[in-house]
Amino acid sequence: MRLITLILVISGITRLLINKFKSDYELWATLGANSSQLALLISGQMSLSGMIGGLLGYFLSYPLVGSFYSWVRTTPGMREFPVIHMSLQISSLLLTILVMGIVIGIMGFINSKRIFSGIHTKRGIMKQQKNGLSLFGYIWCVITYGGLIYVYSLFYKNPLSLAKLFGSPSLENAYLQALLALIILMILAINASETLILPILMKSLPYWYPTTLMKTFRTAFWSVSEKKDFLRSVTMPLFIFSLISSFFMYMAFDLANVTSRRNLSEIIGTLILFLGAPFLIILANTISLTIISSSQRSSSTHRLQIIGFSLTDLLSEKCAEASIYGIIVFIQGVIGNALLYVPILQASYYTHTQMHDGWLSITWLPAVAGFIVFLFILIVDGTYVCRISLSAQAEQ
């Protein structure tokens, strides 16, 4: 799941970078380059950037990994982990650089091929429709949702047949494997159909959002709608983190009944061990998105100033934008957790395990994720607005 999170985050960042420099790449298309040539050019650029990032990340992570692993081994219940002496090795360094270069290069090629597929051709399997999905995208949606429905149906079948299907000696392990498969398919399905889901959620906002309380809501709504790639890059990683965190929460406090056998420090250590990497990936993604979108944020603020927005109006508009991002993250997280909670209830019923968390628990982590997004975007955008406004006043 951590690998899937990393790949999806990298894909989102490369897509934003390509769109950021889209006008420069279109100049190459004007000079005669086709979509395949552009994709190879962008893939090479992304691959070199990935290699440099892998080199820097390897040396920066070395002191942290040793300290973290030493702390893990001192946690109760994990002292059986082997003693490993961390050391710098040329083979692991080259492997890190190579893997990062290949993965980011492939993501750059796929995204650039998808973005520039319609430059010189009218038809094709990668040609995007108005809703942002190509023919291949529709096929992939059907495959992922088909697999999701199939795995979901397993929780309503005979438990013995489920254990036999996964070849598990115990019913608990069989349901655990089924839940892991369900989460992976859910992540793939939501990611495949995100370009269809997000517009639906956005269009539903004006019907129940308190628009009368904010006169700048319409401006904020169209501003968020315009930045579709940024919205997707923000919501998808947080959806994954909310889903995975909820899964481990239910495992720790309900199905696995960890609390009856382990102390609090061991539970915290386990959660950090499994959720620490996704959290760091999402944190790095958030910082990257902030840097990439800085120029777009500045130009948006300048346009609003030109049409007469005061500092108060600008801050109100950014507050409305931040609330829209937070609400979308919250809604997606609740939907994902609800779809996860139902099979967990089925698993608890067949394994005779008492569930301590009720339906309200599906809102806890999405609410935290939505509030963090709201706060982060509000602080970043508010800082930009204040800085630009002060600069404009100084020039006057």
From TrEMBL:
Transmembrane feature ranges: 55-72, 92-112, 133-155, 175-201, 230-251, 271-292, 324-344, 364-386
Tagged with keyword ATP-binding: no
Coiled-coil portions: none
Keywords, alphabetical: Membrane, Transmembrane, Transmembrane helix
The protein, known as: FtsX-like permease family protein
